[in-house]
Amino acid sequence: MANIREDKGYTYGIGSGMSSLKQGGAIFIATEVGADVCKAAITEIEKELNLLKTELIPTEELSLVRNFMLGSLLGSLENVLSHADKFKNLYFAGLDYDYYDRYVDTVKTVTADRLQQLANVYLNFDNFYKVIVGKY
Fold this sequence. Notes:
Blueprint: H1 2-7, E1 14-20, E2 25-31, H2 38-54, H3 59-75, H4 80-93, H5 99-109, H6 112-122
Antiparallel strand pairs: 1-2
Helix pairs in contact: 2-6
């Protein structure tokens, strides 16, 4: 976001996420940019993905993301219905009851080295599907 939104000014908003399914999942990056900077924005997205593969995530940034992820989990448990939703997720995914304990432990203990290893396995830009709507 700092590069594509703040430094380059290509977009007001850019984000990423993951969709988890029982037998697979997807990583996605989404933004809205003008046709005049579309190719440049895609190039910058590729550069950012490659940085995750070649440079360790700074300690401060990793700490910020950890706090965000743990806070998001806590915020998603605000009432009895949200607790039931978490149980439903476990049930339909065939996960055991300690899944969320393992999740919290992983978020708290994952290292920048391990994240770099995972980036090198999963973030191959050439294998990504690119969906572009509008002029390219």
